[in-house]
Design a protein that fits this description.
Elements: H1 2-18, H2 20-41, H3 57-75, E1 77-84, E2 90-95, H4 100-106, E3 130-133, E4 152-155, E5 162-166, H5 172-175, H6 183-196, H7 213-219, E6 223-224
Parallel strand pairs: 1-3, 5-6
Antiparallel strand pairs: 1-2, 4-5
Length: 226
C-alpha cells in the first residue's frame, strides 16, 4: 500500500513538473489526429444523384435502335429494275449510292452474251431506274418511263413518245438513240465526258470528234444536260 502511494506521488510530481497544460494539449492532439485519420479513411455516403430515378438505358437504346433502323431503311435504299443479259433479271433493293456494277452483281452477274463495254459500270443508280444490260450485237434498247433524275425521260402527249437523253448520264447504248449518233460517236461522247467532266450545255457536243453543226441541230431537240 505504501509502495502504491509512493508511485502515485511520484507520478503526480512528474505531471506537476511536466505541466498539466502540456498533458492536456498532447491528449487533445492525439484525439484530433485520430479523428482526422478516421475522416480520411471512412467510406463517403453515396451522392444525392444516385437516388434519383432514371429511365432504363436498355429500353431507350432499343427504341433509338428501332427508329434509326427505320430511318436508315427508308432513306438509304433504292429500288431498281435489272434487265437484259443478266443471270437473274428482276427488281432489286440496293443501297443508296449503288452503281451499275452493284446492280449487275445483285442480279447474279452478267451472262456470257452481255456486252459490258457499252455500259458505264461506274454510273450511280437512281430510285425507280431500269438498268438494261445489252447482248453483243443487240440494237439499242429504248427505256420508257425513266425518272427525271436519270439519264433520259419521255416527253409528248398521248400517242407520241419522244425520248430526251441526258448526255451527262446516258450510257453508250442510250446515246445511240440520238439522231445521227452511231456507236463510234456515242463512245466519243462518253470518252470526252469522262476526260473533261459533264457538259455544261448541249452545244458543247461540238467539242466531240464527229459532231458538227448539222448533226448538232438534229440532236438538240432530243438532248439535255440536267
Amino acid at each position: 500500500m505504501k509502495s502504491l502511494q509512493k508511485t502515485v506521488a511520484k507520478n503526480i510530481d512528474k505531471i506537476r513538473w511536466f505541466g498539466i497544460s502540456r498533458v492536456v494539449g498532447i491528449a487533445c492532439s492525439v484525439v484530433a489526429v485520430a479523428l482526422a485519420g478516421w475522416w480520411l479513411v471512412r467510406v463517403p455516403p453515396p451522392p444525392p444523384e444516385s437516388r434519383l430515378p432514371f429511365a432504363s438505358t436498355t429500353v431507350v437504346a432499343n427504341r433509338l435502335g428501332v427508329e434509326s433502323a427505320t430511318v436508315a431503311t427508308t432513306a438509304q435504299v433504292i429500288t431498281v429494275h435489272i434487265a437484259g443479259a443478266v443471270k437473274t433479271p428482276g427488281v432489286y433493293r440496293l443501297r443508296l449510292g449503288s452503281r451499275v456494277v452493284d446492280g449487275i452483281d445483285a442480279a447474279g452477274g452478267a451472262t456470257s452474251a452481255a456486252n459490258l463495254d457499252v455500259i458505264n459500270l461506274a454510273t450511280v443508280l437512281n430510285e425507280g431506274e431500269q438498268l438494261y444490260v445489252p447482248k453483243r450485237g443487240e440494237k439499242p434498247h429504248t427505256i420508257i418511263g425513266r425518272p427525271q433524275s436519270g439519264s433520259s425521260t419521255t416527253t409528248g402527249g398521248a400517242g407520241s413518245a419522244t425520248q430526251v437523253i441526258n448526255i451527262n448520264l446516258a450510257s453508250v447504248v442510250e446515246l445511240e438513240q440520238l439522231p445521227g449518233v452511231g456507236p463510234a460517236t456515242a463512245k466519243a461522247i462518253v470518252a470526252y465526258r469522262e476526260k473533261n467532266g459533264a457538259f455544261q450545255t448541249v452545244e458543247d457536243l461540238l467539242k466531240v470528234r464527229g459532231i458538227g453543226p448539222a448533226k448538232l441541230s438534229e440532236i438538240l431537240p432530243r438532248a439535255r444536260v440536267n
